[in-house]
Amino acid sequence: GENVEQHPSTLSVQEGDSAVIKCTYSDSASNYFPWYKQELGKRPQLIIDIRSNVGEKKDQRIAVTLNKTAKHFSLHITETQPEDSAVYFCAGAGGYQKVTFGTGTKLQVIP
Amino acid sequence: ETGVTQTPRHLVMGMTNKKSLKCEQHLGHNAMYWYKQSAKKPLELMFVYNFKEQTENNSVPSRFSPECPNSSHLFLHLHTLQPEDSALYLCASSQEGGSVNYGYTFGSGTRLTVV
Q1: Cβ contact (<8 Å) for A46 and B103?
Q2: Given this model, what pLDDT does residue B5 score?
Q3: Residues of chain B contacting residue A46, judged by C-beta atoms under 8 Å apart
Q4: How far apart are CA A63 and CA A75, in angstroms?
Q5: Among the residues of A1-111, which ranges form H helices?
Q6: How far, in Å, are A21, B47, B113, B115 from residue B102 at the CA level?
Q7: What is the pLDDT of residues B36-69, one digit of tens each?
Q8: Cβ B42–A49 below 8 Å, yes or no?
Q9: Mutation to test the A interface, candidates B101, B106, B108, most A Cβ within 10 Å
Q10: Would strands A32-38 and A86-93 be described as parallel, antiparallel, or unpaired?
Q11: With an 8 Å Cβ cutoff, is A92 touching chain B?
């Protein structure tokens, strides 16, 4: 089955700096890679996703890149703000019953 | 609350109790899921339902049993749980079409404590 590894497990950045979270996957059949943000005590929320037919996608301060050859994808947050502090989960999916999540990255943005 | 609603938000139960978790989605999605979230572990898929078929994760103990009476409601029936079953149980829904994935909408979860 799919195995998704996520690094780092914790990340602290100064407000205004960029944050990068990286994930690798094992199943070459995976074709959908969503990212979820979970604030303390709240539900995970989809913030951005990318499909295997594109290499990069942006949404304001958030971007995701995908390297199919190397089987890794990354989340980039620019100009970080305190409200970006949360746990971020990556996932890889090859079908709706085949979603595998990473272990999460706790991001702390220091004002 | 719109989207995906879970009740109760918190539940404390003894190991001999029987309780049920409820999930309701108001999004018209055709797939619903139960996930278990424990500290320092990935989200673990427990069960998947959609209007066409049910899928069980074979590693889920029989003390957890799902029920999906219609495409909007999902239950997780609990009985004779163990303390290690204490976790946040998340319900999610999505609109799935064939082999194409779409993102999940999660509920707020039920924080379960087994004593």
Answers
A1: yes
A2: 96
A3: 103-105
A4: 6
A5: none
A6: 21, 17, 31, 37
A7: 999 878 888 899 887 757 776 658 999 999 999 9
A8: no
A9: B101
A10: antiparallel
A11: no
- List Cβ neighbours of A10 (8 Å cut-off, separation of 6 or more): A105, A106, A107, A108
Mean pLDDT by 10 residues, chain A (111 residues): 92 98 94 94 94 92 96 98 97 80 96 94
B103 contacts A49? CB cut-off 8 A? yes
Question: Closest Cα partner for B6 from B28, B31, B33?
Answer: B33
The residues on B that touch A, with CB distances below 8 Å, are 4, 31, 40-43, 45, 48, 50, 55, 90, 94, 96, 99-109
Residue length of chain B: 115
Q: How many beta carbons lie within 10 A of that of residue A110, not counting itself?
A: 11
Confidence of residue B102 (pLDDT cuts 50, 70, 90): confident
Token pair, residue B41, equals 């572990």
